[in-house]
Structures are given as C-alpha cells and as structure tokens.
Amino acid sequence: MNRYWSAVVHGLTPYVPGEQPKLANLVKLNTNENPYGPSPRVLDAVRAEAADTLRLYPDPGSNRLRAGIAALHGVAADQVFVGNGSDEVLAHAFLALLKHERPILFPDITYSFYPVYCGLYEIAFRTVPLTEAFEICVDDYLTPNGGVIFPNPNAPTGRLLELAEIERLLAGNPDSVVVIDEAYIDFGGESAVSLVARYPQLLVTRTLSKSHALAGLRVGYAIGQAHLIEALNRVKDSFNSYPLDRFAQAGALASIEDRDYFESICAKVVATRTRLVAEMEALGFEVLPSSANFILARHPVHDGAELAAALRERSIVVRHFKNPARIAPFLRITVGTDAQCDALLAALKALC
Ligand SMILES: *Cc1c(COP(=O)(O)O)cnc(C)c1O
C-alpha cells in the first residue's frame, strides 16, 4: 500500500507485454512482430521527417494519414480514427463506447488487455467460454449486453470467425457496440470493414504493428460510422491531442501506400506458416487452425511451460500462458522467417 496512490491505482492489474530479451542470436517468436522489416519507403518517409519542423507540433488530426486509410478501405475520412497503436484506439473505445450499465462480453480466452481496460475504466464484463475446439460461438453473444469485443482472428488461438457469423452477431445485437479487433486479419481472413456501412454499432480496429512490420512506430486505427468515430475523438481530445508524432504519421502513410511490399511480406508469412504447421504436426503437435501470424500448439506429452523453458535455453523465445488453465499446455509461436522456423523445428525435434 502506498499512501500517495489513488484508489484506482491500488486496484489495477496491469497488462504484462511479452518480453523483449537482450540475448545474442535470439530467435524471437514471442510477440507476433513481423520478421521482415518495414517497406524501404517507410524508412525514407521517416528520415525525411528528421528536420527542423520537429520543433512544430504534428497535425493533431493526422489528416493525410486518415485520408490514406479512408481511400484504402473505401470509406470517408470521418469514418477513420487513428491512435498511438491499436492499444490506444482500444482504450478509447472502452471508455467511449463500451462503458454502460450492462456488462460487456468477450471470450474467456482472448487478448488479455481487454480485462485490463475494464479495470482501468471500471467497466463490468462477463467472459464467454470458447467451444471445446476453441471457437467463438456467436449464439452465446446474442443476449443483452453493454457491448461485445473480440479479435478476429482471435488471439492467442489464431482461429478465424467467418464474416457471415460476424454479420449474424451484428444483426442479432443492434443495441450495443460490437468491436472487432482485426490485428491479424491481413494474414488470412475477410475484414468486417465491408459491414460498416450497414451496421451503425460496428467498430473495426486495425494495427500496423503486425502485418505492416511497424510495431516500433505505434500506429493503429479504427473504422466505423462517423457517430462512433466522434465519440473516440471526444475521448482523444480530452486526453492527448497529439497521439501520433510526425514520424508515425509519415511512416504509416508510406506503408499504407506501398501495397506491393505489404502484400509480399504477408504472403511470405502465410507460406511459412503453412510449412511450420505441417512440420509441427509431423513432430506430433496438435496445432489449432491459424489465420494469424502465430500458431497455438500443444504436444501430447511435453507441457507448454517445460517446452518454453527448454527453448529459451537454446535462445528461442516463444510465448506461454499460465492462464487460463485451458491454454497452459500450449505454446504460442510467432511465424518468423523460414530460417527462424527451421531453428525452432530443430530444437523441438531434439526436445520431443
Ligand atoms: C498486438 C495486438 C494489439 C495491439 O497492437 P498495437 O497496435 O501494437 O497496440 C491489439 N489487439 C490484439 C489482439 C493484438 O494481438
């Protein structure tokens, strides 16, 4: 207990990000970063911002970037909100759109930041168990609620919910906001952005951290009808008017505009994922079907914690979750380069 702390701070259980270990020759497969660098055009754009103009505040509305994102998705600029990583976009969405009388709903196995935001903003929530096969069952969410949020594909399972099922959720849930967190949609799934025009309660969030290889730049965005975006802007402008600095605005725009590079690195990750899954299965692992840039896999004999520790001794870091208990036997492995995956497979061959 610290007598200087507020009661809110005493009650917080903060999110713990995957570690960024400082090991030599590290094979880093623990935080779903992209193994390929960002587009060379991003680096040029960021370098060009290292200029005298840094003494001036950036555009508080990130208007050029938002126009670029709007053009990419075929929506209006007032249907786009940008933030300092999609974590910030999500935080604002929790306060602006998900804080009501009724509890919000999200899966029992999902992005572990959601309950943290609920703690910060004092939002009631109820978790909904995934099925035996670790799938989201839409019927479970067709009940009065203060809002619904989950990633699609879900994390850390990697499992995708078909767009028709998202639409069924929206059609049966007209009275509260549904947030679809599409952090991993670029690795194999149909985006719900196409439903925004027809569903006034839908907010779709995206990040440049994974598929654009820009985790270090901190850019995320949301797409929804203008009335939802206005709520996010009200929170943003009550918190920090300049969430994206000059480097982030310029670099993110360059990345969005270099479609060929983006598609080439996504295709490489997906090809490596296919091979990694096949080889893990050949080693006896059960691998959940993944539409993301990571897989969730368990060995019938060797426990997740044991394997994660043994891999770490070989300078290979993957993610292991002690909680919830249902995923404790699993490892969550980011899809790296082919060479990184070969190193992982060689180590697992020796261990299993
Ligand atoms: C990585 C991740 C985010 C956050 O991404 P940032 O834009 O880097 O803040 C959000 N949701 C899910 C499900 C993620 O895995």
From TrEMBL:
CDD domains: AAT_like. Pathway: Amino-acid biosynthesis; L-histidine biosynthesis; L-histidine from 5-phospho-alpha-D-ribose 1-diphosphate: step 7/9. Its cofactor is pyridoxal 5'-phosphate. The modification N6-(pyridoxal phosphate)lysine is found at residue 210. Keywords: Amino-acid biosynthesis, Aminotransferase, Histidine biosynthesis, Pyridoxal phosphate, Transferase. One of its GO terms (molecular function) is pyridoxal phosphate binding. Residues 25-348 form the Aminotransferase class I/classII large domain. One of its GO terms (biological process) is L-histidine biosynthetic process. InterPro entries: Aminotransferase_I/II_large, HisP_aminotrans, HistidinolP_aminotransfase, PyrdxlP-dep_Trfase, PyrdxlP-dep_Trfase_major, PyrdxlP-dep_Trfase_small. Homodimer. Belongs to the class-II pyridoxal-phosphate-dependent aminotransferase family. Histidinol-phosphate aminotransferase subfamily. PANTHER family: HISTIDINOL-PHOSPHATE AMINOTRANSFERASE (PTHR43643:SF3), HISTIDINOL-PHOSPHATE AMINOTRANSFERASE 2 (PTHR43643). This is Histidinol-phosphate aminotransferase. It comes from Thiobacillus denitrificans. The gene is hisC.
